[in-house]
Amino acid sequence: MATPGESCKRTLLEDSDENSSRTKLRKVEKRHIAALILARGGSKGIPLKNIKMLAGVPLIGWVIRAALDSGVFDSVWVSTDHDDIEKVSKVWGAKVHRRSPEVSKDCSSSLDTIKEFSSQNPDVDIICNIQATSPCLHPCHLKEALELMTDQGCDSVFSVVRRHNFRWKEVKKVFGTALEEHLKHTGREIALPIEVCVTMLQETGMQEEGLFCIAAGADKLKKLKATLDCSTFQLEEFYSDPHAVAGALTTYLKELPEPLMTYQLCEKWIQASNISDSDKRLKALREVCDMLPEPNKNNFRYLVQFLAKLALESNVNKMTASNISNVLGPSLLWAKPEGSLAERAATTTSVVSIIELMINHSSCFFPEDVDIDSGFSSMSECPSTDSEAESRWRPGLFDSDHKHSIMTRELATTPVMRNGPGGLSGTSAQLNVKTPTSGPKGPSPFMMCTGDFCTKPLNLNPACRPRRQDWDGELCENGSFYFATKELIAKGLLQGGKMSYFEMCPECSVDIDVDIDWPVAEQRVLRFGYFGKDKPEIVKLLLCNVSGCLTDGQIYISANGEDMVSINTRDQAGIGMLIKEGVKVILIEQNPITKALADKISQRMGCQVLQKVDDKLKKVEKLMEKYGLEWKEVAYLGNDEPDVKCLNLAGLSAVPHDAPGVALNAAKYTCCSAAGRGALREFAERILLLKKQAKSQMERDRIGRDTF
């Protein structure tokens, strides 16, 4: 297997700004190059994930070690706002930049923090922002990437990985999405739920008594909402229930992140509605209406004109302008959530009177003629509905030329109508409509899948889908690191000027964001992570405390006065695994235990037990001398202050998850399991994994010598 550096590539990109004043860096020039690892304490996906143990090492420790061992940085920093992260960072050898509260918010960007660091450290010429959540980063990645800065004079270098993923356009949901975002995504001018619901109501709901007042069935409303949210529309069943359609329209308006009449103009709406003179009040309200953003104004106009038409049928549907405004007004304007109850009540009262006025004077507010009838239900004659014509329309058709129309059906005998829904959006789109043959339950021109909501491929032709081996794939940022000059950072950029990318191998491109990423990253880092400068050695001796490691530290006394301890069978199996692989295991105990208990443990575990070991360091050194071993060949599992020296010196050392802080800081590995609950088994598995890696490395070295 190639080493991480062997499968990585460096590539120069064209200068993105010919006029950029980039600094030419050469090896002969002395520049201060700093690594900066951002580690905020307020992680949302995984609380304090930056110091959570990953494969026995704090997450941030993996990248600190890689940065320090690369030897290319004049300083390695961790930027944090948390005391615990600061302590761990210093233990691992990094300096700490204590970031300000202004750049520690949830909304703060990485660039904000980097700019603050740069301004506080003006002697730093190049900053490498290293992602704390990239535990498979190796020193060779940083070395080779920096060469593009120093040798090629680049202003910025960033890491990428090659992906072979086919990408498709996202089908975004409609409900709960900001109006402007929805319109931009779909290329529409009238929001889909507004236009669809108004169209359906014009066909079947204008004379429905209590429209918008009578609640629809919850299941029906939920189904209609889901139908509008998905990429295919089958709306026929809802034509028989105009109350569900009206409910869907009201729900859409309520679920907008910001009211259609906008928070920004809320106070102006209220002030205008409080003017006593009726003529001046109408004039003021129209002025506020003209202040609405164009997308809001278009949709508001469309909706008000429909409501005005609905009110004309009030002798049948009982929906007067007053009734409509009482029901729909609070869905069009409301106070901000942080507002007081009095403010909310005032807003509700005002908007009800505003909407009533607008319905009664719609031609005054919107003098431009928008015919919402055309293309919906008015037809000069019914088209033929013979079986041949019936067979020519099919679901899923999409009129790509008419971005603002909703659905199109393919029916040659259907007359063409002008100013359909597209006309309401300021276009002259035409719809070919098949009139229902069975009243309200029949098909509607707005049933089919619209192109606005159908997905499409972004980087492939489905008709000519390549095999993986025939496609080079695409380069994607993997977020591991970003080099940039201080001049570029001062401009508010991490990428710019003369740019280059550094391609990392897929096995080293690991990122952790949410809980589900953790076990995947742990497996990957154990296999492909960087464990330090020293080559892995084969462990030949494991020394393990009895109390606090093999056991949970408790001694039980029987009725007969005999000492008893509890031993986990998983730990017993772990010792057996090590012995089978040729690793000698010795258990040591500082506290006095009876000889009978020690003999039982030795017999049960299949290894030697040393009692009353007061000076553990001296005892271990004697054992090493006896067996002709060096510290790098010794593994040590301890749990408290008397073990610290041995934990520091051993080639591989570990502590249980519940060990005191002094031991945690000294150990090279922290088990996920607690003492007496599988910690020894976990450490045994790690020893055997590293032994396997060491043998693999020795084999590669042997092949290299024999070959060359």
From TrEMBL:
A matching Pfam family: RhoGAP
Reactions catalysed according to its record: an N-acylneuraminate + CTP = a CMP-N-acyl-beta-neuraminate + diphosphate
Pathway participation: Amino-sugar metabolism; N-acetylneuraminate metabolism
Record GO terms (molecular function): GTPase activator activity; N-acylneuraminate cytidylyltransferase activity
EC main group: transferase
Residue ranges of the region described as Disordered: 1-21
Keywords noted in UniProt: GTPase activation, Nucleotidyltransferase, Phosphoprotein, Transferase
Residue ranges of domain Rho-GAP in the record: 177-366
One example of a Gene Ontology biological process annotation: signal transduction
EC number of the protein: 2.7.7.43
PANTHER family cross-referenced by the UniProt entry: HAD SUPERFAMILY MEMBERS CMAS AND KDSC, N-ACYLNEURAMINATE CYTIDYLYLTRANSFERASE
Stated family: Belongs to the CMP-NeuNAc synthase family.
Identification of the protein by name: N-acylneuraminate cytidylyltransferase
